[in-house]
Batch of 3 targets.
Target 1
Amino acid sequence: MYEKTYPSKRFNITLQFLKKHISTSETILDLGVPNPFSKIMEDNGYTVINTKGEDVDKDQIALQTDNYQVFTAFEIFEHLLNPYTVLENVKADKVLISIPLRLWFSPAYRSKTDMWDRHYHEFEDWQLDWLLEKTGWKIVDRVKFTHPVKKLGFRPLLRYFTPRYYMVYAVRK
C-alpha cells in the first residue's frame, strides 16, 4: 500500500476502513486542512473537501454546506474543546472518525512549541461512543489498532500490545 514510513500502518488501516464503508461516488468533508491522508483519499478516487483551518469550536459554518455526503475527522477530535457541537452541525448522514486512545502509561500529549498541537481530550473508546450516541449517531462498525514504535523501553513495548487508535463508522439515527 503506502511507504513504510511513520504513519503507514495507520494510513493503510484507515484507507481499508474507508473503502469498506464509503463509495468513491460520495463527496467527503474532511475536518482539517489538506493533509497527507486527504491526498491519499484523492489518490484512491475520493472527492475530498477540506475545511480551511477555522476554529470549529467557535464557528461551525464550514460544516453547513450541503455539498458532502460523508464527514471524516481523522485524529482531530482530541484537539477540539467542543466535539459535541461539531457532531450536531454535521450535515452528512455518515461519519468516519478516528482518535488516539488515552493511554494509562502516558500523559496527555502537549507540544511545547505549537500552541494548537495538543490534546484537550484523551478519549477512551466508550467516551467517543457516548458522544456519538448523544449527538444522534448509531455506530455501525469500529476497529482498534496498535501503534508500535521502533524504540527500546517499557513504553515502546506496551505500544505493541495496547491499542492506540480507535476508528468508528456511524450513521445518523
Target 2
Amino acid sequence: MLELFDEDFDSMELAEGALMLNKAVNPETEKKWAENELERLFSEAEQALFHEVDEKQKFEAFLRLFYQEWGFQGDKDAYFNSNNAFMDKVLERRKGIPVSLGALLLYLGRKLGFPIEGVTFPTQFIVKLSWHGEKPQYINPFNGEYVSLHTLTSWLIGQEGPLATLKSKDLDAADNPTVIGRWLALLKSSLLREERYTLALQCSNLALTFVPDDPYEIRDRGYIYQQLDCHQIATLDFQYFVDQCPDDPASELLKNQISAMNKTAVVIH
C-alpha cells in the first residue's frame, strides 16, 4: 500500500493518480474498469467532436457532451458521500464533486488538446481555460458553468469574511501531489462520516507517509483506532498529540480519553 507514494504523480493525469489513491485505500476499487471507461469516453468524444474545426466551439461542444449528453453532474443530494471521491463510482454513477468531476474534465480535455489546468481555489476545485493571447476563463466542474472573477471573489468572501480579496496565487495551477493530498483528506473525512473506520484508517496511514510526525493526523488515527476498539494503540496516538500540542484545547479532552481507556480492558485485533 505504501508504495503508492513512490509514484510520480506529476507525470500522470490527476484522474490516474486519484485512481491509484482509491485502490490503495480500498482494494475493491474497480481501477481497470475505470481506466477502460476513461478510454471509451475519450474515443467517443473524439468521434463526436471530429467535425468541429474551431477550437473554441469544439470546447463548448465538449462541455455539452460531458454535462448534457453523458449526464455528469454534481451530487447535490449527497455531496459528502465517499462515492464522490472514488473515481470508479463517479464514472459509474455520473455524479461527483468539483475535484472528481474536474479530474475527469482534465483527463479528457487535455487528451483532446484543450489548454486546461486544475486550480485548488480556496473554496473548491476549479478548471482554468487559457486560450493563447487571452485572459484565462474559469469553469466550475460541479455544473460546467463559467465563473467570473467577481463570482470567485464572492465565494472567497463567503468563506473567509467580508475583508477577503482575490489573490493571483488563488488562481495558480495546482500540482497533482497537492491535489492528491487534499483528495486523501476529503476521502478520509467522508469515510469517517459514514463510520467506515477500516478504510478511514487506510487513509490516515497513507497521509502519515506524507508527514510521518504530524500530531493532528496521529490524533485522527487515534480516534479511528478508538472506534475500532484498539484502545491501547489509540492511547499511544492520543498521548503523542498531548505531548506535542499541550496547549491545544483538544489536549485536555484527550487526557480524559486516555484515562478512561486505561481503565478499560485492552482489546487486540
Target 3
Amino acid sequence: MTTALAPAGHGLLAAARVVAAADGRGGTALPVLDGGGPFALRRLRSAGHEARVCLVGAMSAPLGGDALALSADVGDGAALHFSTTAATIALPGRTGAPATYDVRIRVGDGAVLRWLPEPLISARGGELRMTTVVELAPTARLVFREEQILGRAGEPPGRLTARLTVRRDGRSLYDQELSYGPGVPGWDGGAVLGGHRAAGQLLVVDPAFAARPPEARALGPTAVVAPLAGPAVVVSAVARDGLELRTLLENGRSGVDFGIQHDTDIAVQQ
C-alpha cells in the first residue's frame, strides 16, 4: 500500500488492506495482507476455519496531521480474527493539525469477523478524528470491540472524535459518534463520562438474535447490555481505567446468551 508524506504542513499518508476468503477446503485464506508506514500486518496461526491477523505498530502514529486508512474485506463464508499487539496512541504533531483514521470493513454472507483491537489512547495535545464503517451481508456475524482511554496516567486527554456506523443488508443497524476532550461541551459531565477516563463498547451481530433476542440489563452503575433494533446487542461502559473497562465489557459479554455456541467460529474471546 502507498505510504508517503502529505503536502507541506501535513503528516503521513498510510494505508493497509486485509482480504480474507474461503479457501474451498474448510479454512480461510489471506490473499491480500498489505500495509505500509505504521501498519505492519502479521499472519498468525489459524484456529480451525478462522484466519488470524495481528497489526503490529511499526512507528508512532497517528500523529497530528497524519491520514491513516485501514480496510478489511471478509468474503462469503470466510472467518477472520483481527487484533493488535498494543494500544494505539493519538499524539500531537508538529503542525497542530488533527489526524484522521479511516476504517472500512465489509463482511460477506455466511462470513464471521471478530474485530478485537487493543484500546485507543488520546494523549495530551493530540487531536484525532476516527471513522469506522462496517457493511454486513444479511447472514454475516460480527463481534466488534472498541475502547477509548482519555489521557495517559496523570495527564488530561487530547481531543478525540470517534464515529462507528454499522449497516446490515444496506440498512443502518448502529450509528454512534462520541467526542471527548478540550473544546467539546460537557464531555466530562454527568451526562457523558461523569469523571471517568475510559469508555467502550462491544457490539455483537448474529442472525440468531432475530428469534432469540438478548435481554437488556444493567452491569452496575456504569455499564449496560442493550439489544438493538435488529439481530444485535451492544455492551456499553465507562470506567476509571482500561483494565476496569475491559472487565466490564467481558462481564457483559459472558453474562448474555448471544445465541452462539463456543465451538463455533464466532465464540467471543479476548
